[in-house]
Write a structure and sequence with these properties.
about 260 residues, alpha+beta, three-stranded antiparallel beta sheet, two-stranded antiparallel sheet, 9 strands
Length: about 260
């Protein structure tokens, strides 16, 4: 909830005006992730998805497709999110600035490579949709802590894997750094090489690298419960068998689209 608080010269509150009641609206809600995304919303050509927590705005010939189906009823970063669809389109993911710690592509991987975790990551979104203000339950909401969120402080496992793959490219935009990678190639790398061995790679595994709540520990225990063998090692075949079938198809050569 955003409130504009006005004070007098002595610091006493003289008025409070509600600017945002917390319910997402596709035409009214601002971007909360920076000036660049807000600039896209101010462009008359943009199309925006209805999902409240991970809305996508797109411009260009694939804009309709990239936002289609990404409603409040869909998973935040599931098969209908543009990060997932970019894999099928054989597109490029570009980060402007030192921003790999906000790599939402990783949330697409965990949602679609480990769909069995969906019930353990529930959430509720607030949206003004179809003329009504609603609270809608979501599955596989990417809440709680992730190891790669701390990339600005230290080298993290998942982003190290991106570097080791040789698929992550670095260049310059003016004085700033940019990172980019082919979405299909990187998804295949994580599907074939990383997740069968390290399905917990997106989560911390020590107290020293997690938040004070140490919430990654429980997430790792859930992953072990679902995918570990009796000897404690991960069952690669079981992990691969659980991959979302549409996402597997999208990693095939060429352009592969979500079917509706």
């Amino acid at each position: 909830l955003k409130v504009d608080v006005q004070k007098d010269a002595e610091g006493k509150v003289i008025s409070r005006t509600v600017l945002d009641d917390g319910y997402y609206h596709v035409d009214k809600s601002p971007s909360l992730v920076g000036a660049l995304t807000q600039a896209v919303l101010q462009d008359d050509r943009h199309i925006r998805s209805w999902h409240p927590s991970h809305s996508i705005a797109a411009i260009g010939k694939e804009a309709d497709y990239l936002v289609k189906g990404h409603t409040p009823l869909s998973q935040p970063v599931g098969i209908h999110n543009a990060f997932s669809k970019t894999v099928g389109l054989d597109g490029i993911i570009l980060f402007i600035g030192d921003t790999l710690k906000s790599n939402t592509t990783f949330h697409a991987y965990e949602t679609l490579f480990m769909p069995a975790l969906a019930p353990y990551f529930g959430g509720t979104v607030a949206v003004e949709w179809d003329g009504l203000k609603q609270l809608i339950n979501n599955s596989w909401a990417p809440n709680l802590h992730r190891d790669f969120y701390d990339e600005a402080k230290r080298k993290t496992r998942a982003i190290n894997a991106m570097r080791d793959s040789g698929l992550l490219k670095e260049s310059k935009l003016g004085r700033g750094v940019v990172y980019y990678f082919n979405a299909k190639e990187m998804a295949k790398y994580f599907a074939e090489v990383i997740f069968p061995k390290e399905p917990d790679i997106l989560f911390c595994n020590t107290k020293e690298t997690c938040t004070a709540a140490y919430d990654c520990k429980n997430s790792c225990e859930i992953i072990k419960h679902l995918y570990a063998k009796k000897d404690g090692s991960y069952d690669a075949d079981k992990i691969k068998a659980g991959y979302d079938k549409q996402f597997v198809d999208m990693m095939k050569p060429g352009q592969v689209r979500v079917s509706y």
